[in-house]
Write the structure tokens for this entry.
Amino acid sequence: MFTNVLPQGTNEVMNNEKSADTQENFFYIGSSSFFRESLQSLYSGTQFSLTIEAGKKILAQLDRTPDLIILDIPHHHIELVAFKVWLLAQHFNDIPIIYNQAFLSERDTKLLFSQKLVDDVINLEQHYSKLSAKIKFLKRVNNVITIKRSPVKVANLLAPARFTFIKRMTDIAASAVAIALCSPLFIIIPILIKFDSRGPVFYLSKRAGKGFSIFNFFKFRTMVVNAQDQMDQLAELNQYSNDEKGPAFFKLKNDPRITKFGKFLRNSSLDELPQLFNVLRGDMSIVGNRPLPLYEAATLTTAAWAERFMAPAGITGLWQVSKRGKADMSNEERIQLDIDYARSRNLLTDFKILIRTPGALLQKANV
């Protein structure tokens, strides 16, 4: 898109601005040699990375927090959401992010702003020499927002290594034993599913777990084939009140897509049994926050919501034992329970949740 030859007049701009902006510390993620050379000439503190994944490693090792992150890469929404969650875990969530407009459609731009994934979208080719003024403006805006809103406590997000090790060893042992004990069910349930309705025995979907890591999530199928395609038609029946400002969830009371045998599997929680293999693989834990479908997880991008991704994904958790099956549950209430667990998780908390889990397995409402 860009050549390595600087536009006419660039050297004059650089000479005029370099002395004033040498203290600025930018982090550029992209592959344009033009911008790499230009930014380095204008702002001596600029750091570079070709990709977001490589950028995480560099950011984690920097002595000084960047004043601005510049994204000059093709838009990959899930990767960007995961990056925002990672920034939160590193306490970098207050670093402003700008995106090069050249990589975004109008729809992409609206989505990034509505989910607060970026602070600004600019034509980088035209405005790269004015980033110092941009960062000063964004700092003033962020300072006003910080004063108006209540500070978000990000405590105990990274669990101590000892707790993490014990939790993982417990998960391996518990899931292996449970799979062995439930082996007859892994034979009987698939047969009954096949008799009840056409389609595969297992339901496989992409879910977002700890740190927004994406993995294949296993369940016994409880719905008709192509149930996902009916979501738009059933949107008005959604028990959650979704709007543009908050998290979005989709769950129906008396969902018409659920098969007869699927209703029994859900109410008895037997549809969750295949997730024991997710635990054995390390995708999930026995206790944690429920892994979310990507269309739901992508709406939890602000610091206030994304904190729930700091806890591992789990088969059971604080939400299940507190509110599962209750139709009056709000989006905010559900996510707050996840955040509460992310902040307070320890062996005692996990034990208390496990003790309360049997009573939550047989839910009363068809939700």
